[in-house]
Amino acid sequence: MKEKTLAYHLKDKAIWVVFVVLVLAFTIANPRFINPNNLFMMIRQVSFYGIASIGMTFVILLGDIDLSTGTIISFVNIICAYFMVNMGMPMVVAIILTLAIATLIGVLNGFMVSTIGIPALIATFATQTSFLGLTYIICGGLPINGFTESFKVIGQAYVWIIPVPVIIMALCFALGSFILNKTYFGRYFYAVGGNVEAAKLSGIRVGRIKYLVFALSGFFAGLAGLVILSRTNSGMANAGDGYEFDVITCVVLGGVSVTGGYGKMSGVVAGTFIIGALKNGMVLMNINSYVQNIVMGVVLALAVGFDCIQKKNQSN
Amino acid sequence: MSEEYVLQLQHIRKEYPGVVALKDVTLELKKGEILALIGENGAGKSTLIKCCSGAVIPTSGKIIVNGKEFTSMTPQLAAENGIAIIYQEFNNVKELSAAENLFLGRPIRKGIVVDKKAMEEEAAKAFEQLRIKIDPKALMKNLTVGYQQMVEIAKAIQQNAKILIMDEPSAPLTSAEVESMFMVVERLRKEGISIIYISHRLEEIYRLSDRILVMRDGEYVKTLITKDSQVQELIQLMVGRELTETYPPRGDCIKEDDVMLELKNVTGNGDKNINLKLHKGEILGLGGLVGAGRTELAEMIFGAVVKESGQMIFKGKEINPKSPREAIDLGIALVPEDRKRHGAMLGISIKNNINMPIYERNSTLSVINSKREMEIAEKYQKNMAIKTPSLHQLVKNLSGGNQQKVILGRWMAADSELIIFDEPTRGIDIGAKYEIYKLMNDLVEKEGKAILMISSEMEELMGMSDRIMVLAEGEVTGELEKDEFSQETIMAYASAANIEEG
Lengths: 316, 502
Known about the structure:
The complex is a heterodimer of chains A (316) and B (502).
Chain A: H1 2-29, H2 36-61, H3 69-86, H4 91-116, H5 120-139, H6 153-156, E1 158-159, E2 162-163, H7 164-182, H8 184-194, H9 196-201, H10 206-232, H11 243-253, H12 265-284, H13 289-315
Antiparallel strand pairs in A: 1-2
Helix pairs in contact in A: 1-12, 2-7, 2-8, 2-10, 2-11, 2-12, 3-4, 3-5, 3-10, 3-11, 4-5, 4-10, 7-8, 11-12, 11-13
Chain B: E1 5-16, E2 19-30, E3 34-38, H1 45-53, E4 60-65, E5 68-70, H2 75-80, E6 83-86, H3 98-102, E7 109-110, E8 113-114, H4 116-129, H5 145-158, E9 163-167, H6 175-190, E10 194-198, H7 202-208, E11 211-216, E12 219-225, H8 231-239, E13 255-268, E14 271-280, E15 283-287, H9 294-301, E16 309-314, E17 317-319, H10 324-330, E18 332-335, H11 339-343, H12 350-355, E19 363-364, E20 367-368, H13 370-384, H14 400-413, E21 418-422, H15 430-445, E22 450-454, H16 458-464, E23 467-472, E24 475-481, H17 487-494
Parallel strand pairs in B: 3-10, 3-11, 6-9, 9-10, 15-22, 15-23, 18-21, 21-22
Antiparallel strand pairs in B: 1-2, 1-4, 4-5, 7-8, 11-12, 13-14, 13-16, 16-17, 19-20, 23-24
């Protein structure tokens, strides 16, 4: 019994060991990596993944998946820019409205998965494709520029030496951790992901919980989209292309079980940092971007494979 | 070895870690006879036939098929030697035709192309031989359960089976379908095919079988000639064990004038017109065989399945729970049969498991009151005597008995007043069983709760219940007061056999 808990602790820590080893390796390969400017740039880069990964963590904890994250980021880029530039809405109103719409897209996913019963993979895949189409229709494929100076704060400003997106990410991780550990529905995520039947028989309304996680996933993807929009200062329909892949990788690399029921926010923080270090380090080493894709694919397979092998060993 | 037996199982023993499933079982099957295999749930019938099919490898013993001796079978070996099994769950592909199902895995081919026409002709011949009218082209999903079973039988015969083992073949059928199945079975017997017929419906056994083999607790009891035997005798053989286990005593705590739960003609989920009354401080046992509709009844009371008609009156008010949440809020709890699948949440802590149904009650603006959460967990760990070094321990690391106590603690924490136990001590070792029984006693005696206990263990049912109701095929077949408890009567009601006629 004790050995098992020890193994669990090791598993939680091991991910940070991987991170440190990665940092050391890249530093040896190219000393510029450890430069504080580069490190901050790296963390700012991953903050987009980090913010979106909160919602994805909840979804994966339930044993589901959300493939619409990237599209929501793109959609948010365009509609928020459209609201502010083409419709002349005040910034705050545009932001609130945009976040509400992102959340509603999540609710739509929840409706398809929970009420209709479409497997999450397909439901969110459908959302991904159709909302991407809608995004291009709204903007006509062209970027939307010309935001106010104050909007730039979200993605480009610093508090002391810390970039604002990093602060937003830190707050989001704190909120995610709070939800998982302190709220009753956070507990329900584990219960539903671990054993749906037992959860139902304990009085948990599983359908509502599914709505909630997809809505939260939409919300956090929307928030990530806003930060990206401010950072690039230009609404682009391809802003979120492929983001769901990186976000899912962050989450499962962080030890959240793809079959649901197990995972911690702290692990996801580590997973996010590892992805950041990998991406940044590979660029510094001038690794061909196609090779980078191969590495990212292998990392995802390894992360999930590790989890599956552990499960297999346990059930034997 | 005698020539007259087509199949002999000699001194079959099967051990699993910690359990002996079969102890020295011997079975002899003659050519062209129907041998009925009977016994209570868990008597070892299924394990025994799995030894014949190759699904289970016996620890020791011999299997002799047509004079050939084997120590164990494999599915191929069984098929080569003409042994076929008709399981309760059919092995068919619903989207394929009857003919294609008949030749599943060994289609008639022309080169690499499947010869549908030849298969349909062959299938038509096979069906003709059994005198059943099935269109070989009909899709399996469009056939009734009875016809699907016929296709299974035809498939076995088509593959030259000489020994047919049928596991509860009448269970999924309507009474008209049962009649045609009987006719097919009797025709097969005339053609010299030997049949092992497993059923708990005694009337069928008397109608069909030549001899009856009785098993009990993994042991061979006796083989009888059907026409010389009596229902009473059979029942006695099936249940005739010594009652050895002891049960903790309980004072008289039934509040006769305080009805906790009353069911009036409750119908649905496979059950028909269930009437019952459960008083405060009472343990009402629900007896019956697997599939009698007891778990189904529990699901309706607990709101997991909504009843179709009838009335449920709980503490004087009519209720109609549409979800477990509603039932829990009313004060009803269910301790399910399959602890690992439906009960405990293995991957999370004891503390979380105990608090799960009441998190919403103990939250302010969604935030859990952690102090209260811990107090509750500690209180019920103490009350239930859950043995653990820490409340943060994951439930999967606990023993079965302790897991059950965690689930009990959960329902106590939720202030439940009616607790439904579905097989309360399944898979729990003897010592822990006694503790669970004591806890159940405390619940009715000290806390004034009411318990509805589903149990397939005869001893437990008689040892713990104040009254017993027996269900068979979704209906109440009998009700016994404490002084009327007897294994024979319960078994008779459970097999829906009429004792007076026997």
